[in-house]
Design brief:
The complex is a heterodimer of chains A (about 400) and B (about 70). Chain A is α/β, with parallel strands linked by helices. Chain A has 12 helices and 13 strands. Chain A has 3 domains: about 100 residues, OB fold (Dihydrolipoamide Acetyltransferase, E2P); about 160 residues, Rossmann fold, CATH 3.40.50; about 45 residues, no CATH class. In chain A, about 20% of the residues are buried. Chain B has one domain. In chain B, helix 1 packs antiparallel against helix 2. Chain B is about 65% helix and about 0% strand. With about 70 residues, chain B is mainly α. The chains are: A alpha/beta (about 400), B mainly alpha (about 70). At the A-B interface, helix 9 and helix 11 of A face helix 1 and helix 2 of B.
Chain lengths: ~400, ~70
């Protein structure tokens, strides 16, 4: 047993000096003890290592060692044979300076920015009036009160799903990540607020934790951050969907103001009603104008015109008819006169006679007729049948006008 | 045209209005037979009533929709 323990101690003792960086998770200084014990946590991974050192190392002037502080330690791995325990034996402890902390945050910021975690396209819109708001804050903190009171005043119907946890110190980042996962898993939660009041750069350090930044980027629920004062910028502010300047400002971002909304709705309602009424009135005027148009208002006019037409046509027809009848009468008169002029009656009247043979042919030469032939003689008074008798020839009748 | 008395007309206001405007235009243009113009006029009357019906309905709905301006209810 002691051989093994000594061999392990020898082997570990040969490892030599290293520089490590971590956060002081636990610190125990006993009264007059010469050795100070502390536990050093890795800033990212969940592991810690016990560190021992002489009181002079821990209490060096200018070094303010407390739980939560970031330190760089020069140490030698050490195996304490009497207890079989491993530790780092520190020979020098340096606090990580402010400038160095900020430079480190800046490096992480650049890394995450290069990955696109802060891109504007990743920002999700906040719900308009969420029913349930998840809130991650320190218990009974001013930040908590500011968010709750302001949000309730603006939108009384809002409900909160609270997650209270440490918001500074070595556990803060892990706590906030835990809260974020729980609230994100709750389907009722529509938006998550991470709020914390102002503090020193060291106090706000957990809010620049790379793991927390990635956890915010991974949520399905939109996240609003309100960490520190307006001038403090932590990395969570870059990754958040909305960065509020203060917890009160966060309350303004997550819920609308009820009175303002009511006025807005009233205004819109009034405008809609006004527009609709105006449009309706315009339509009514149009309809009225159409209905009073002569063609629609007095349909008898459609027929009036027709009656006039009929009358005119009738008159025209009558006139035409009279005209034609008169023309016909005139024609008849002319014909009659011509007939009268051409008639042989007048000649007969003067004593001439027309002699015709039985077939109606006019006799123009005595040689045309045979003796004893029956002829018809027409005189003014009428017809007279005669028979030719050549034996009774006497002196020829003078063909002169007998008158 | 289907003439279902008192039933909800299937012609929309816009359709009726457009047709009415057309009827008036044709009547005013003239050149129609007596029978044609009478039939057109009857159609015009029918359409005008339809338009009126829609406008009256719209007014009723507007009046029924909400209290007049200023009535702040909560």
């Amino acid at each position: 047993m002691r051989t093994v323990a000594r061999k392990i101690a020898d082997w570990i003792g040969r490892l030599g000096e290293v520089w490590v960086e971590g956060q002081v998770a636990q610190l125990s200084r006993r009264g007059g003890a010469a050795t100070v014990f502390l536990t050093l946590r890795d800033p990212a991974a969940d592991l810690s290592v016990p560190v021992t050192c002489h009181r002079d190392v821990a209490e060096r002037p200018g070094l303010e060692l407390s739980e939560g502080s970031r330190v760089i330690v020069r140490a030698r791995p050490d195996y304490y044979v009497a207890r079989g325990s491993f530790s780092l034996r520190a020979t020098e402890i340096r606090a990580v300076g402010l400038g160095e902390l900020l430079a480190r945050i800046e490096r992480i910021r650049q890394l995450l920015a290069a990955e696109g975690l802060f891109d504007a396209v990743r920002k999700r819109p906040l719900p308009f009036a969420p029913a349930v708001v998840g809130v991650i804050t320190g218990r009974d903190s001013a930040a908590e009160r500011d968010v709750l009171v302001t949000a309730r005043r603006r939108w009384p119907a809002v409900r909160f799903e609270m997650f209270n946890c440490a918001v500074q110190g070595p556990q803060a980042a892990a706590n906030v990540i835990d809260g974020l996962r729980r609230l994100d898993a709750n389907p009722a939660v529509e938006v998550i607020v991470i709020a914390r009041g102002g503090g020193s750069v060291e106090d706000l350090l957990p809010f620049s934790d790379e793991g927390l930044v990635r956890a915010i980027a991974a949520t399905r629920t939109p996240v609003v951050t309100a960490v520190g004062h307006e001038t403090d910028t932590t990395l969570v502010d870059h990754v958040a969907d909305v960065r509020a300047a203060t917890p009160t400002d966060a309350a303004h971002r997550i819920v609308p103001e009820i009175g303002e909304q009511r006025r807005l709705v009233e205004g819109l309602r009034g405008r809609a009603r006004h527009l609709l009424t105006a449009r309706l009135e315009q339509q009514e005027r149009w309809l009225e104008s159409v209905r009073t148009r002569p063609v629609l208002a007095s349909p008898d006019r459609l027929l009036h015109g027709r009656a006039d037409d009929v009358l005119a046509l009738r008159t025209r027809a009558r006139r035409t008819l009279v005209h034609r009848v008169e023309g016909a009468e005139r024609d008849l008169e002319h014909a009659r006169a011509r007939v009268a002029a051409l008639s042989p009656a007048a000649t007969l009247e003067r004593g001439y006679a027309v002699v015709q043979r039985a077939d109606g042919a006019l006799v123009r030469d005595p040689a045309e007729v045979a003796d004893g032939e029956l002829l018809r003689v027409r005189v003014a008074g009428g017809r007279l049948p005669v028979r030719v008798d050549r034996g009774a020839t006497s002196e020829p009748i003078a063909l002169e006008d007998p008158a | 045209m289907t003439n279902t008395p008192d039933a909800e007309p299937t012609t929309t206001y816009e359709q009726a209005r457009e047709e009415l405007a057309d009827v008036v235009r044709r009547l005013e243009a003239g050149g129609l037979t007596r029978e044609e113009s009478l039939a057109l006029w009857e159609r015009g009357e029918e359409l005008a009533k339809l338009c009126q019906h829609w406008l009256d309905r719209a007014r009723e709905r507007l009046a029924a929709a909400a209290p007049a301006d200023g009535a702040d209810q909560d």
